[in-house]
Amino acid sequence: MFSALDATQSTKTKVAALVHFLEESSEKDRIWGVGLLYGKRPKRAINSRQLREWTLERTELPEWLFEECYQVVGDLAETIARVLPKAEKTDERELSQWMDELLDLRSAEEDEKKAFVLDAWACLNGTERLVFNKLLTGGFRLGVSQNLMVRALAVFTQREPSDIAFCLTGQWTPWTHSLSELLDSGTGSGDASKPYPFYLAHPLTEEVSELGPIDDWQLEHKWDGIRAQLIVRAGQLFLWSRGEELITERFPEFSALVDVLPEGSVLDGELLAYKDDILPFQKLQTRIGRKKVGKKLLAEAPCVLRLYDLLEWKGKDLRTEPLEKRRQLLEQLVAEHPHPVLQLSPVLQPKSWEEAAEERRGSRAVHSEGLMLKRKSSPYEQGRKKGNWWKWKVDPLHIDAVMIYAMRGHGQRSNLYTDYTFAVWKGKELVPFTKAYSGLSMEEFREVDRFVKKHTRERFGPVRSVDPELVFELAFEGIQASSRHKSGIALRFPRMARWRKDKPAEEAGTLEELQELLQQFGS
User: What is this structure's pTM?
Assistant: First the structure.
């Protein structure tokens, strides 16, 4: 299956490969295949340092040569698979058997882990080793989206994709569930924590006027936080992020809602750091990675849930109801059960698309990324669907910057210098302020790669400093003050909008320009 999926970009071919795997595999292998591709991977039992040491011992390669190979390949699992000698024997263990043994390794001594890995390397071929190593390092990713897995399971089971998508949400793992148990799950399964699949909007690419009368649409701001679902069922409260991570304990300010909201409530909204007004996204980031949140952090970055939608009301699934009705019920719920951590996302009332465009242009002033356009008659679907929900983001900010450092990329770009550090002028000095690695065509990346190799000044491990000659126009969604960067500034989602071959480095942007953008649009 790995080889079939890795060899194609065709969605149809990928679905066929997944269905073939499901049809031909044992029940235990099926759930592991689904789980691994869906992101339900066990924590790794072996660290990268150990794998490096065992590889050097097995291959007798000098460390410097292995590291040079790694820099060219760009992926540790693939590098190890390539440098190991050919397999000495074969092995017929199935996927589920391998995974059971990997789970057992978590409590094993290092000598036992080493013996297991060396034995595996001795009996697996090149592609098998690559997959095995990726499972060891926790880096198993194969370009299979959750929606693709849903489609394959829908074909395999002859069921509706929406039904399958709901079954795959929530707290399950390949080592605690079978596929049949998982596909039988639902609101009646006893799993009170189970969220609904999130409905995601597509970027608006057509003229907004082509959407028809503005009265058919509900407009609201696209808030810059973390999309989340808040669930109250069976006397318990659960908070899920869009990435299907249960984050209840990280946001204790919501715990009181279990006694405020009606039983059988599921609310969809945006987690925001909020104190009198929306705080910068970096304040919210301080909460994301914390398993335990102390009083100091709660005081510095208190959070609210700004509500978009009501998916379940007193135990009834509302997703097939039109948005207009769901919004009415949401407003009723908030009015009848108010709480400071719950805020309605205001519905905007422009009378024309021209007025809507004006509202969009002022989005940054209210800490918004733009507008959401939702058809009032739309149901709450799952995944990213075109037609009923659109995100109309504000135009990005721009600055011309000079490339001063370059590093090799990963995956297909591992043999090219594609990851760059950029600087702007502070007087006669170039001050680094951001990194970017997307936005150019492959041909442009190859051209920059040739420049890097010819104009290298110094090497710092995988990084090269280069002659400061190339200028790129960078686009970014937001700007904020930062004590972590020498420039004092950090950008949100920077990327290369275009290569300014027409502009010499001396005419690139300045730190003063960035500071002006910070004063005007920053936080």
Answer: 0.80
